[in-house]
Write a structure and sequence with these properties.
- The chain is an alpha/beta fold.
- The protein has two domains: 258 residues, QueA-like (3-Layer(aba) Sandwich), CATH 3.40.1780.10; 99 residues, Thrombin, subunit H (Beta Barrel).
- It has eight helices and 17 strands.
- The strands form three sheets. It has a nine-stranded mixed beta sheet, covered by helices on one side.
- Helix 7 crosses helix 8.
Length: 381
């Protein structure tokens, strides 16, 4: 499938630079897969669009201050975006700077910031430097993983120091400083590990959560630690040639039981965000007995899992969902408006049908919806 089918032109002024206040004041486009109807609401109306007995599933992963600034021993500036912890000292990361080959040592201090003349691999940051008196960390480039990805090793465990030396890793299309870093966290974030927020949950406020509970709509959690592929555009020409990276995913036994009971009782499984979708559909494939390649299993007939049940999982999933995928668990998706040629747009295109999604995006642009992480929401029924 040609990647260009997932391309579209977005006026730059529609890229939301700041979150709306209050959270539930964002707009909500509702896309009905059965009728093709598209309607317009506010997020506060979500409770009226769901049914008693439905269950929402949230990703409770929390964004870590994963962006670090430092210098090589030669003096050159370096930026590091931590993606995934490998062991106590080693991480997979994206690095920005020149000649960052294996063996290069980088000193990390809280007083560093992005250079004005950022190179093509350098990571943009709207943040000012932190306290320059913070003690430095040292890291060594251990292995070149391709493109800007590197395996790095710190001279000491860095987990407890990230709040001091790290910066919140806002996406590169956001150029406005964020006064409160918690505004890039969801109200459900509990477990540290993501390099980006599961942004569909940014719309939820305590008021909306209370209204959902009062209507008898359930709420549960999965965990998927978000890495590079959540926002990285697909650069190959054919969708099938894209290699998606593995991300840690967990669905507990108790949550799996509640989801399955909801389904048996006639309720709908509402996945909030594409990360929740990938976790739930990975668990459904495991329930269907597909313990091998997720890529191969994802195209198999759904009769292997007639109840669309899910099982507990704890694994690194590389499930890539694009048109042709058979959904086994998720009934409704609540999501944001995604970047062109991204795996996220491919996922919603698989769920709703690419023609319907393209029409919805055209309408969203015409109606001046706000796009991307701090933008408006879409409910696909």
């Amino acid at each position: 499938m040609d990647v260009q089918r997932f391309n579209y032109r977005l006026p730059p002024e529609l890229i939301a630079q700041t979150p709306i206040e209050p959270r539930h004041a964002s707009r909500l486009m509702v896309v009905n897969r059965s009728t093709g109807k598209i309607s317009h609401h506010t997020f506060a109306n979500l409770v009226d669009l769901l049914h008693p007995g439905d269950i929402l599933v949230a990703n409770n992963s929390r964004v870590i201050p994963a962006r670090l600034f430092g210098r090589k021993q030669s003096g050159g500036k370096v930026e590091v975006l931590l993606l995934k912890q490998v062991d106590a000292l080693q991480w997979e990361a994206i690095v920005g700077g020149k000649r960052l080959r294996p063996g290069v040592v980088v000193e990390i201090t809280a007083g560093e910031q992005r250079s004005k003349g950022a190179g093509k691999n350098e990571i943009k940051s709207p943040y000012a430097p932190l306290n320059p008196r913070t003690p430095a960390l040292s890291l060594t480039i251990k292995e070149d993983l391709g493109e800007a990805r590197r395996l790095i090793e710190f001279d000491q465990p860095v987990d407890s120091l990230l709040d001091t030396v790290g910066h919140m890793p806002l996406p590169p299309y956001i150029h406005t400083s964020l006064a409160d870093g918690e505004r890039y966290q969801t109200v459900f974030s509990r477990i540290d590990g993501s390099a980006a927020a599961p942004t569909a949950w940014l719309h939820f406020s305590p008021e909306v959560l209370f209204a959902l509970r009062e209507k008898g709509i359930g709420l549960d959690y999965v965990t998927l630690h978000i890495g590079l592929d959540t926002f990285k555009p697909v650069t190959v020409e054919q969708v099938e040639a894209h290699a998606i990276h593995r991300e840690y995913a967990q669905l507990t036994l108790e949550v799996a039981r509640r989801i399955n009971q909801t389904k048996v009782s006639g309720g709908r499984l509402v996945a909030v965000g594409t990360t929740a979708v990938r976790t739930l559909e990975t668990a459904a494939l495991r329930s269907a007995g597909q313990l091998g390649s997720l890529k191969e299993a994802s195209t198999m007939a759904p009769h292997l899992c007639p109840w669309k049940s899910v099982v507990a999982i704890e694994e690194e999933t590389d499930l890539f969902i694009y048109p042709g995928f058979t959904f086994r668990a998720v009934d409704v998706i609540l999501t944001n408006f995604h970047l062109p040629k991204s795996t996220l747009l491919m996922l919603v295109g698989a769920f709703a049908g690419l023609d319907l999604i393209r029409r919805a995006y055209e309408i969203a642009i015409a109606e001046r919806y706000r796009f991307y992480s701090f933008g408006d929401a879409m409910l696909i029924l």
